[in-house]
Amino acid sequence: MSRFVRPMHPLALSVALACAAIPLFTVQSSWADESSSAVHSFSIPAGDLSQALNGFAEQGGLVLAFDPALTRGKRSNGLNGQFSRDAALAHLLAGSGLRAEALSAQRYRIETIPQAEGAVELQATTISGAYQSESPTGPVAGYVATRSLSGTKTDSALIETPQSISVVTKDQMRAQNAESLNQILRYSAAVVPETRGATASRLDQLTIRGFAPATYLDGLRVASSRDASPQKDAFDLERVEVLRGPASVLYGQGSPSGVINLVTKRPLDTPFHEVGVEYGTFNKKRTTFDLSGPLDDQGVYSYRVAGLFDDADGQVEHTETRRQSLSTAFTWRPSDATSLTLLGHFQKDPKGASYGSMPAWGSVLHSPLGRSIDVDFYDGEKNFEKSDREHFSLGYAFEHHFNDIWTVRQNARYMRSEGIYRSIYHSNLQADYRTSTRSTIATDVDLDAYNLDNQIQAKFDTGSLQHTLLMGLDYQNTSTDTKAGYGRGPDLDIFDPVYGAPVETPAFGTDATARSEQTGVYLQEQLKWGQWVLLMGGRYDWASTDNTTLNLKSNSKSRSSLDSKAFTGRLGVVYLFDNGLAPYASYSESFSPQSGTGYGGTVFEPTEGKQYEIGIKYQPPGSNSFITAAIFDLRQSNVPTMDPDPTHLCGNGRCQVQDGEVQSRGFELEGKASLNDNLDITAAYAYLDNRISKSNSTVSYAPITDIGVGPAVPTKGTTTYGVPRHTASVWADYTLHDGNLKGFGVGAGARYVGSSWGDTANTLKVPGYTLFDASVHYDIPHINTLDDNLRLALNATNLANKEYVASCYSYSWCWYGAQRTVQASATYQW
């Protein structure tokens, strides 16, 4: 079957499809007509059976569905030469006790050979449902993912993507009992999670390469507004992908740190059922269920329903957390060429623990009173505080292959989030070093967000060049309505707190409405020539914001609007050695609109991010492992800083100009491996030099000797608060699959976070810390049937119960890290 086309044909047609309303003609896919007896050329090295099947599916243009438990720990002799699909599959599966059953011309299911034909006994491993080999949105057996959508928006191999990407699989989340985004990313390079310590259960606050990243869900941006920001539970996720560095070419406006893409669970091709219970410290109670499978014998319709209830006390005294969640997914696949998946989600967090803090004196710094603040210190009032969030979303993912060249995709989502927040919190410490001045806040927030991403993809060859061309148009619309009020609350003794004082709810002082829109068009080419892979892309965005604030006290209204336009580009190259090494180099850009004006009403331009990165990726043939190393220079320019002319006044102070710059340079190393059927391991290290490289601003600081405000110092050369220079982690899990302890496993990990600065002037240093985690688990198969499995597990984090300060924002605001938690769980799958 020839795939040769004229070089200009796909590009010209894709432009026409994107820019003109021309009805698309249907082309019968040559895949659908192809017989399974047709001969293909395969080159698949010997090694892990899952990887061999992945290579077969990619080279043969097929979809394979199978349970990860069937292939884990098994090896294949590989394949090299001309074979029919059926013969190739039989050769790859020889000696494994498995066989392939054709579901259609393009879809096969891998299953156990019946006992009568000599089947082998399934090993005692956790069954996590069927998946496509390897689908970038599906489950992965073990810790090593090899494909992703986040880096290119196409189904691409990680080793062929010239930018640093990490994937945390469901198996790793389960082994570490991670239940929030902060916990999921504890073992990822250059990521500093839980920057607000024990209060991180309420918000996903973290940094990547020194900047706060944007969060995406199934490739579409998740809008945020602190008191109404949705927080996805890990139970609803299949994987989490971290794309480091500027990514505006694919995603539009955003932080130069990159993006975090959460991939939700999708319907499975084979029946899967799971229920679970959990109990642990801080009165933790959690129940979950997950049901999935086909609705008919032909696999045209499939579904997934997952839900949870979670209730616990917070680490901070007098606080609680509670969550109820329900997720649904339904897939309609009328043919191998077409699929539509509907995705729905509802979540309610009626209790959100505490967002409070404590002063540096008595936590990071020794108090002159010779006392330390308790690790569970609560700066609020139980009868006053409230954090009630509720959100729902409805979306879909559509894909259609016209033929073996053209594919169209459309992803869309509408999300509604509501938040009610009431809090009294520590504001500053008085001169006696023990009396906390407290402030109050009340907000009601409504958030609506629409996202749409249209894509046209063409895969074709021109001679020896292999092309994957992607054209897209996406749109974002976010609307936020916020009523807010602020006040002063009663003081509190931080060493001998007495609660119960009456607190007056502050009246709403403002009613603010914020509207933002973004429309972007992008073009990307992935070009492969022999062992060279070239990635290049460009994008143009139109962004606008419109803010209206009504002062409820004076009944006055103010309004501001801003229109921004930006072009961003990306270029990268990879060379694929036969031994699995893949050195690469890349350049990428980002932009983020800025509100406000300078002297004379000059409108601020968007901040710009630029990154140069060189690295190497290593995926040894025949080994289920993946190692990446990268050196990067990342700069954010057009950052507002003080106007150097003292006569330039704006409002009540000096104007600002966009002369500032923040620079992050560093090195990171990360490795993941599922070395055999017994051992899974992940390890990471990152060095980061984050500095304000250009600034005209100065700040005042509180000297160590007293609590007053000291002299002003320049911020140039200082490091952003909460950004450590060194971070490192390692986690390993070992499971026995033979002998008397068959099914028994243990895991252990260590996390190191170096010291960080706790204020803008870099006069307050927060010490680094090392934490230890551990787990014990036991899988018991065949409780009632040959396909079921009971998993008993015990997980502990911060095993030594180390008391530490996670970070400080200033001398007034610091946060203790999470104490030791121990959680016992039982999960039954069938």
Automatic annotation (TrEMBL):
Please provide the record's keywords in A-Z order.
Answer: Cell outer membrane, Ion transport, Iron, Iron transport, Membrane, Nickel, Nickel transport, Receptor, Signal, TonB box, Transmembrane, Transmembrane beta strand, Transport, Zinc, Zinc transport
- Molecular function (Gene Ontology), one example: siderophore uptake transmembrane transporter activity
Q: How does it sit in the membrane?
A: Multi-pass membrane protein
Signal peptide (from-to): 1-32
* Alphabetical GO biological process terms: nickel cation transport; siderophore transport; zinc ion transport
What is its subcellular localisation? Cell outer membrane
Among its keywords, does the record have Signal? yes
The residue ranges of the Secretin/TonB short N-terminal domain are 62-113
Q: Name one GO cellular component term.
A: cell outer membrane
* Alphabetized SMART domains for the sequence: STN
Give the InterPro entries listed for this entry.
Answer: Beta-barrel_TonB (IPR000531), Beta-barrel_TonB_sf (IPR036942), Plug_dom (IPR012910), Plug_dom_sf (IPR037066), Secretin/TonB_short_N (IPR011662), TonB-dep_rcpt-like (IPR039426), TonB_sidphr_rcpt (IPR010105)
As for family, the record states:
Belongs to the TonB-dependent receptor family.
Q: What does the protein in this record do?
A: Transports the metallophore pseudopaline, which is involved in the acquisition of nickel and zinc, and thus enables bacterial growth inside the host, where metal access is limited. Is probably involved in the import of pseudopaline-metal complexes.
What name does UniProt use for this protein? Metal-pseudopaline receptor CntO
Which species is this record about? Pseudomonas mucidolens
Taxonomy, top ranks, is:
Bacteria, Pseudomonadati, Pseudomonadota, Gammaproteobacteria, Pseudomonadales
